[in-house]
Amino acid sequence: DILPNKFRTVLSRLRLSSHHLNIEVCHHGSNRVERHQRLCLLCDKHDVEDDFHFALICPIYLHFRKRFMSYFVKRPSVRKFIELMQSLNKHTLRQLGIYVYEPFTLRKFLVNK
Fold first, then answer.
1. Rounded to 5 degrees, what are φ and ψ at 39?
2. With 0-12 CB in 10 A as exposed, 13-18 as middle and 19+ as buried, what is 56?
3. Which of 45, 48, 43 is nearest to 22 (CA)?
4. How many Å apart are CA 66 and CA 92, to the nearest integer?
5. Angle 38-102-93 from CA coordinates, rounded to 5°
6. What are the two backbone dihedrals, phi and then psi, of residue 48, each rounded to the nearest 5 degrees?
7. What is the mean pLDDT of each run of 10 residues along the chain (113 residues)?
8. Other beta carbons less than 10 A from residue 59's beta carbon
C-alpha cells in the first residue's frame, strides 16, 4: 500500500519477470532467440537485456538511476541488485517503483517507434 498502483504494477512485473525486456520476449514462441543474442536494443554495451542490465547497467537509464537510486549507480553488482529486488524498506521500494516506471515508459516509446 505504500506505492501507487502504476508503480506497484511495474515493480511487480520486474520482480516476476513479466515484462517486455528481450530476456523474456525472445524466450517464447516460434521466434525464440538464444539467450546470448537477446541484446539490449537501446545501448551499445552488447549486453543481454535482462533485469540486471535494465536496472543497474544500461546507460540509457543512467539519469533515472542517479535521480531515484543514487546508491546503486556506483559500482553496480549482482549483490546490490539482489539487495534492491529483495528490499522491504519503504523508501527504497518507493524509489525503485518510480525508477522502474520511468525507464519502462521510455523503453516502450523508443522500442515501438
1. -80, 160
2. buried
3. 48
4. 14
5. 100
6. -65, 135
7. 80 74 66 78 90 90 88 85 87 87 86 72
8. 12
Spatial distance between the Cα atoms of 79 and 22, rounded to a whole number of angstroms:
22
Q: 26 is written with which cell numbers? A: 525472445
| Amino acid in the structure at residue 59 | P
Q: How far is CA 37 from CA 57, 70, 86, 108, in A?
A: 17, 30, 28, 20
The whole model's pTM is what? 0.80
CA angle centred on 25, ends 109 and 3, rounded to 5°: 60
Tell me how far apart the alpha carbons of residues 96 and 45 are, in angstroms, rounded to a whole number.
Answer: 23
Residue with cell 546507460: 59
pLDDT at 25: 67
